[in-house]
Every structure is written in structure tokens, then in C-alpha cells.
Amino acid sequence: MSAEFPITREIHSIGDLFECAEIASKAFTYVVWFRGHADNSASWDLRPTVHRKFPNTGYESALVMNFRRRALSRHPRCPDSNDQAAWLCLMQHYGVPTRLLDWTESILVAAYFAVHNSKRETDAAIWALSPVLLNQAFDLPHIPALSNPELKPLMRPAFGASGTDKGIIATLYDEVDLRMLIQQGVFTIHADRTPLEQLADSQRFLQKYRIPQAAKSKLEWQLRLAGVSQSKLFPDLQNLASEITDQQERVLERKENA
């Protein structure tokens, strides 16, 4: 088993978030992406859900086939049958396991996902990634769009076609819905099943920050004060209903404990 990835520093407040963003920006020189994990343990590694849940691409291609076959009658604007990048993004958006891993350009958004359930009795973590340095490690000098022909070999195995099982690339995609815009969403696409932090020389393009369990509730409150909340990041009625219900439950809990 490989050694656990080292912690760069701890985060206790929203001020620490900005300091960590500055540290990452200086260390990587280029643009920085972030990802929040509600659990800091090594079992929450940097792998897409489909690689975490299923042992080979046979299960993955079955997911793709069944989703594409049945989505046409349920979604008014399905992608063209040959647009593999658009299909992967649509699946990712609706929670189907794919070989895409979500990142954000905002450390505040990443922190929300790390501490949203602050009652979880574990430390949380935020990862910082240099997409430019990651791609350079795979001999790609830029950050391509997911639809770029250079990435097709990484996508084809998900669709039951021959491709490659090597490579993890940082990629961009069109902001096809409001959620992607608000969350400042970006992706890495993983043909390789190895967790990102276990790649050789991963400390060249990755940093990790720990959020102690005792600091999560305070940080979640500070994020709400800064306007980073469930209904803002997921702008639909379902998440609005969940947020306002949670708010009133908190009010009641404070009154009962007064």
C-alpha cells in the first residue's frame, strides 16, 4: 500500500481557505482547481465513481448503453448519438457513475462539498490540482475541451469500443446548464483506474488540506454568510425546499437547547 498523501496545512476558517488558495496558486503558478471531500481518510481517493464501484469497463459500458437507450424518451434534448463527450456529461449531471471526476475553480464551492454535512464525525479535506501540470505529466501541453479528438481514446472504452486504459487528463466542457456555471465546474477524465494521488510525482500537481471535524460546523456557517449554500449551488425547487426546511430545524434546535 502506498503512503498516505501528505497534508499541506489545516483549514479552520474561511480566512484559511483564501490562504490555501493563495498557497496553491503560488506553488503551481498556473490556474488551480479544487475538490472537497467530506471524509479525509485514504479510502476517499481521487477516482471517479465508476472506477470505485465497478471492477472493469464491462459494467461501465452497460451503464452507458442503458442510459442512452432509455434517456431519449425522458429528456427533451439528448445529445447526438456520436457525441460521447456530451453523453458522459449528461450522465454525470444526473448522477450516473462515469469516468469523469468533478472539480471546481472555486475553493469556496469545494469547501461547501467538504463540510455540507458538518455533523459527519470525520475530518474533511480539500484537494488542489494544477490542471496544466497534470496534463504536462501526460505530454499534453494544454487543457483541452472534452470534445477534443485528442481525448477520444480515453472515452471510447466507456462506450464499448477500443481505446486506452492509460491517462488522466484535466478537461473543460461547455456550460450547458446553470449548475455548471454557478459551481464553476470542470473535470478530469480517467482512463487509468489508479487514484490520481497515487500517480508518480503527484505532489508536483496536487496539494491536500485537512479540515478538522471540530472546525466543520463553523466553516459551514461562515460559507452560508458568504452566500455559499445548497439552494445557491443547486438552483431548483427541490434544493430550495431542503435548505429552508433545514434552516427552520436549526432554529428549533437552538430554541430547544437554549
From TrEMBL:
Q: Name one Pfam family in it.
A: FRG
- What positions does the domain FRG occupy? 28-127
Return the InterPro entries for the record: FRG-dom
Domain of life from the UniProt record: Bacteria
The protein in question is named FRG domain protein
Q: Which species does the entry assign this protein to?
A: Gimesia aquarii
